[in-house]
Design a protein that fits this description.
The complex is a heterotrimer. Chain B is α+β, with helices and mostly antiparallel strands. Chain B has helices at about 1-20, 25-50, 65-80, 85-90, 95-120, 145-170, 175-205, 215-245, 270-280, 290-295, 350-355, 380-385, 390-400, 405-435, 445-450, 460-475, 485-500, 525-555, and strands at about 245, 265-270, 300-305, 310, 320-325, 330-335, 335-345, 350, 365, 370-375. In chain B, helix 3 packs antiparallel against helix 7 (about 175-205), helix 3 packs across helix 8 and helix 8 packs antiparallel against helix 14. The longest helix of chain B is centred in the last third of the chain and has 31 residues, at about 405-435. The model of chain B is unreliable at about 250-260 and about 570-579 (pLDDT under 50). Helix content of chain C is about 25%, strand content about 15%. The chains are: A mainly alpha, B alpha+beta, C alpha+beta. At the B-C interface, helix 2 and helix 6 of B face helix 1, helix 5, helix 6 and strand 7 of C.
Chain lengths: ~210, ~575, ~325
């Protein structure tokens, strides 16, 4: 094939290739957009700002049913309940109060209901010095033992603050101890975490998990 | 003024047209490049529409092959101009033409850099935010703003220098030194700055300990001066082959040369011949009559048919020649092929180097068409050059030759050799610093060289690069790389090794692990790869077009003098040179 | 230079300028098909996710907008959101309050790694759900070390906290000496008087240099158009805060400017079930952050040695 003819062939082939490319581009052949990975919306429970538990004070505030706290519906006035202990000197929680699971302090330090409750008046709490404390205002009772935490709480450093940091703009929402801590078993219970992050390109992550 | 503009437009039109004509090899090359450009453009359109999610990048590895290629190419652009130093500072005549080719490579490389940065932007439609005065230009705090300035400035510098020199050559005028020499020296300094600024992009980030090291800047320069000249060594051999007209042994295809050489008829020269020459060479008219009579002693006028030979490469005769009528072509044997180094019309000279320097003929001069040539003995030439104006014009034209000699390539080889040695030494420094002290900041280096926490995607890459660089270094030091075959292999090893080391081996490990210790690897997507190929093809396309315009101008075959005449090579001629 | 008569290999006709008719036709065919392919290669632009309107394209830099221009911009944003989601938001341009410098303190003894802060932030700040953008990343570290190389990002046990580990949420540290502000080539991100480093989403060019510069991996990029479920859109928006972003721009934690600049706590503080997060005005000696920094003996600023001077303090109780 002479040079001239070769040039002609090359140009012809080029024209055909360009035309074919043009068709490919317009038709979008071979360009499937990758299917986006499915990322479910997070469960709304993880967006809730409500505290872990509802304290007595909170129940009062929200005008909820307080019948659970009517002690003298069952107990006799003037007759302090008798505590019973087992062989290992662990408190035996009566079956009427089986929802109370004791666990306040290691080595069963708070093995006695009346460390906090007032046996003379079951609707009140008592501090170590005998002061009577309303159930809805229990903070000083906790603070009488947990001094450093109480100090932090007063400064706003312990426990969640919400609402307005700028008092001039609005009120700060404070929590009291029992909004988060169960007084009988105060350690915050473990919970299921919200889902972890999803990477932009999932394949790499799967390989990584496999090799870990 | 209008005439000047018209002239310039004609120059652009004629040289630009050349990009569209050539032989089948040319069309194949340009066609393949165009196909890749189109694929790349299509891939980029997809990215523009859908966002950078179509790449392999992520929040964890937020820069990828785009910036890796950008980093490599800034180095090539810087090194291309650094070759200017031997020519202008050390007056190395052999490298003179390489300078233009080097600067054109710099222009093509910078265009590629700008393209890579643009495709990496999330919002390229907001480019105007970068323009100082109109947008918000964070200079001097942001190294990226420095990079914008130095890269665009460098582009303008090189476009000016090349454009001016080529246009002057086209017009057959000596370039005014003040209009380009200062810019050349600025370009030398600027070349170092573009790569240092690019290095500082990485070095300045305290949060990325892999990059935050003083050695990154010097390593950049060392690797740039290895890969850049290596690329030029390869590119120049391609230019040499493509612009050669025929293998040296094949004399029958040299048009007009009928197998046996013929010397032209000659007669004594007369004053009338000098007047004819003065018509084309204005400076001659200023020579007084007595001097002209003096010059005529021993001068001859040669009447040549097409194909007659005036002088031969290697001979030691000392006449110098001036073309009175017709056209003469100077061919030179280089690397086993003949190439046209110059094509001369009326008023132009050849053979003067031997007359002035006493060196053997550097080429063979053949009449391309029936021509009339004035031959001056060496003494006459000296008398002629006693006139300062003649001296200036003759000397300025002496240096304009399209020579790509093997010696020039060997000079480049020494640049690559020294730079590779420094590059490897700096690598050793880096590896020691990372691994000896054993502190926490070594995580990225560990990932790159050894793998980390079960992730090792880059390990084969970096060891291949190191292997290539070490083999190249050894070859460069050994005399075996003086042979072009081995030198070419060495250059390929250098370029690939440094591309890996500076691209994937620098940019990616900086992101792995993330500043919070997460391991997410990166590999470019198909779309990303197509865009990269497209930009490389675009750069090669630009460089081919530049060369396609520059070589005929430097050879003298495209000049103002032959405006209006039929364009050569336009009919797809066979047998002749591709350019 | 060859004259026309020298071309002996071609048998085609020559026109005066040496160009034959056949080669002209050939070249034109290639040129035409090439140009057609060029135009066709731009076909994907048909599916452009969002093309900026003229107003968006020409919008001036945040700091140069007059109040009237800003009002127009805010209204335009409200229109855009309404068009996209069918709900009309309220977008404000909130300025920093006087005498305020925000500081964040996080109690590493208390954090249980539940990630509620992550998702509350996502909901409050209208972050993309798919692909997922989250300003806060909670990492799990083994007891005894802050070495982030040992961090686990993808823990998902049945229950947190796990024995032997502690959890550290990381988000933008609002550094006093922010590297991201230093490197942005167009001033799209800057620090305001109240200490918050903000981004003008309409100015960012998406070069991602700030992401490379940030030592805390706090800056996130919109790799494609964000997707926000309509039913979870937060309509209370701020220009420099939680208004929906577009493809190709950066975003990050901005201390919930839409809340904090009107005196409220950020969403992450309000949702934390164990009260590990503390936020306030360090210039107010009565604020809880002031008291924390005054009374706690040890607090950690991440990567302090880098000189970024974060406004984020990790502290411990026990």
């Amino acid at each position: 094939m002479s040079k001239g003819e070769r040039t002609g062939t090359v140009l012809l082939v080029l024209a055909v290739v360009f035309f074919a490319l043009g068709l490919k581009f317009v038709s979008g052949f071979g360009t499937r957009p990758p299917a986006p990975q499915k990322i479910p919306l997070v469960d709304t429970q993880f967006l809730e700002t409500a505290t872990i538990r509802k304290s007595y004070a909170e129940l009062i505030r929200t005008k909820a049913d307080l019948s659970d706290f009517d002690c003298y519906a069952c107990h006799e006035k003037g007759k302090p309940p008798v505590l019973r202990f087992d062989a290992k000197h662990d408190l035996i929680v009566p079956k009427e109060h089986e929802d109370v699971v004791m666990g306040h302090g290691t080595h069963n330090r708070n093995n006695n209901c009346f460390n906090c409750h007032d046996e003379q008046n079951l609707e009140l709490l008592q501090a170590r010095d005998g002061r009577q404390i309303k159930l809805a205002e229990s903070v000083p009772l906790c603070g009488s033992c947990h001094g450093p935490t109480y100090r932090d709480w007063e400064a706003g450093a312990h426990g969640r603050t919400g609402g307005y940091w700028d008092r001039a703009a609005g009120p700060m929402k404070r929590q009291i101890c029992v909004d988060c801590h169960n007084p009988h078993r105060p350690k915050i219970p473990p919970r299921k975490p919200a889902p972890g992050p999803h990477p932009l390109h999932p394949v790499a992550a799967v390989a990584a998990e496999a090799s870990h | 003024m209008k005439q000047a503009v018209r002239n310039y437009l004609v120059f652009l039109w004629r040289s630009g047209r050349l990009a569209f004509v050539g032989d089948w090899r040319y069309y194949t090359w340009m066609g393949v490049l165009s196909v890749f450009c189109l694929l790349g453009l299509n891939a980029y359109a997809k990215q523009f529409a859908q966002g950078l999610v179509v790449t392999g990048m992520s929040d964890e590895v937020s820069w990828g092959v785009y910036i890796a290629n950008f980093t490599f190419l800034v180095g090539v652009a810087a090194a291309a101009v650094m070759m200017v130093i031997p020519v202008y500072i050390y007056n190395n005549e052999e490298l003179h033409d390489l300078v233009i080719f080097g600067e054109l490579l710099a222009v093509a490389a910078i265009l590629m850099c700008l393209a890579f940065v643009t495709v990496d932007l999330g919002r390229p439609d907001r480019f105007w935010h970068l323009i100082p005065g109109i947008g918000q230009f964070n200079f001097p705090a942001s190294m990226l703003s420095w990079d914008v300035l130095v890269l665009n400035g460098y582009l303008l510098l090189n476009v000016h220098i090349c454009g001016y020199l080529l246009y002057c050559r086209y017009r057959g005028q000596a370039p005014a030194k003040w209009f380009y020499i200062p810019f050349v020296f600025i370009a030398i300094v600027w070349a170092i700055s573009i790569h240092t600024v690019t290095a500082f992009l990485y070095v300045g980030l305290g949060g990325r300990p892999f990059w935050n090291s003083a050695i990154v800047g010097p390593r950049f320069l060392a690797s740039a001066f290895t890969a850049g000249p290596a690329l030029i060594i390869l590119a120049m051999q391609v230019v040499r082959r493509v612009t050669a007209s025929a293998p040296a042994g094949d004399t029958s295809r040299l048009r007009g040369e009928g197998g046996e050489s013929q010397t032209p008829k000659s007669r004594a020269a007369a004053l009338g011949d000098l007047d004819l020459l003065a018509g084309h060479l204005a400076e001659l008219a200023t020579i007084p009559q007595e001097v002209r009579k003096n010059i005529l002693t021993g001068a001859m006028v040669l009447e040549a048919r097409a194909g007659d030979v005036f002088l031969r490469q290697g001979q030691t005769d000392k006449e110098s020649f001036f073309v009175l009528k017709g056209r003469v072509v100077v061919k030179r044997e280089e690397g086993g092929r003949f190439r046209i180094t110059r094509s001369l019309g009326p008023g132009e000279q050849f053979g003067e180097i031997s007359a002035l320097a006493g060196t053997p003929r550097t080429g063979t001069a053949i009449a391309e068409e029936p021509s009339q040539v004035l031959s001056l003995p060496a003494t006459s030439l000296h008398k002629l050059m006693a006139s300062p104006r003649m001296n200036k014009i003759i000397r300025s034209r002496m240096s304009e030759r399209l020579l790509i000699t093997d010696r020039a390539l060997m000079t480049l080889r020494s640049i690559v050799q020294v730079s590779m040695l420094i590059n490897v030494f700096l690598l050793v420094n880096e590896v020691f610093k990372e691994f000896y002290s054993g502190n926490l900041h070594v995580a990225s280096a560990k990932y790159l060289f050894l793998g980390l926490h079960g992730y090792h995607a880059l390990v084969p890459w970096i060891w291949t690069a190191i292997g290539f660089n070490l083999v190249a270094m050894v070859l460069l030091v050994l005399p075996v790389s003086r042979s072009l075959k081995w030198l070419n292999l060495t250059c390929v090893l250098c370029i690939v090794g440094i591309w890996i080391e500076k691209g994937m081996g620098l940019v990616i490990p900086g992101f792995i692990p993330t500043p919070l210790g997460e391991m997410v690897e990166y590999s470019p997507s198909l779309n990303e790869t197509l865009v990269c190929f497209g930009i490389w093809a675009f750069g090669l396309l630009c460089y081919t077009v530049f060369l396609r315009m520059a070589v005929p101008i430097l050879q003298g075959r495209l000049s103002k003098a032959n405006e209006g005449q039929p364009e050569f090579g336009v009919s797809g001629a066979g047998g002749r040179s591709a350019l | 230079m060859p004259t026309p008569t020298s071309n002996t290999h071609e048998s085609d006709q020559s026109s005066p300028d040496g160009l034959s008719r056949r080669s002209f036709l050939r070249s034109s065919a290639v040129l035409a098909s090439g140009l057609a392919a060029l135009a066709a290669s731009l076909a994907p632009l048909r599916h452009l996710n969002d093309f900026p309107s003229l107003d968006q394209f020409l919008q001036k830099y945040y700091k140069e907008l007059t109040p009237e221009e800003m009002a127009k911009v805010l209204k335009r944003i409200e229109d855009e959101v309404e068009r996209q989601y069918g709900l009309r938001p309220h977008v404000r341009d909130l300025k920093p309050m006087n005498g305020v410098e925000f500081v964040y303190a996080l109690n590493l003894t208390r954090c249980i790694g539940c990630r509620k802060c992550v998702h509350a932030c996502v909901a409050e700040n209208n972050q993309s759900r798919n692909p997922e953008i989250q300003y806060i990343r909670v990492v799990r570290l083994p007891h005894g070390s802050l070495d982030l190389e040992k961090a686990e990002h993808n823990y998902s046990p049945e229950q947190v906290p796990e024995k032997g580990y502690f959890y550290m949420p990381v988000q933008c540290q609002q550094c006093k000496n922010p590297p991201c502000v230093k490197v942005c080539p167009v001033h799209a991100t800057w620090q305001e008087a109240d200490g918050i480093t903000v981004i003008d989403y309409n100015w960012c060019i998406g070069c991602r240099y700030c992401a490379a510069a940030c030592p805390y991996w706090a800056r996130h990029f919109n790799f494609t158009n964000p997707s926000i479920p309509k039913e979870r859109l937060n309509l209370d928006m701020a220009y420099l805060g939680n208004r929906p972003r577009r493809q190709g721009v950066m975003e990050k934690c901005h201390f919930c400017v839409q809340r904090t600049r009107v005196g409220r706590y950020p969403a992450c503080v309000e949702v934390c079930p164990v009260g590990a997060r503390k936020f306030g005005n360090i210039l107010d000696p009565e604020s809880e952050v002031s008291s924390i920094l005054r009374t706690k003996r040890v607090f950690v600023q991440l990567k302090e040695e880098l000189g970024t001077s974060p406004r984020f303090f990790y502290y411990f109780d026990v």
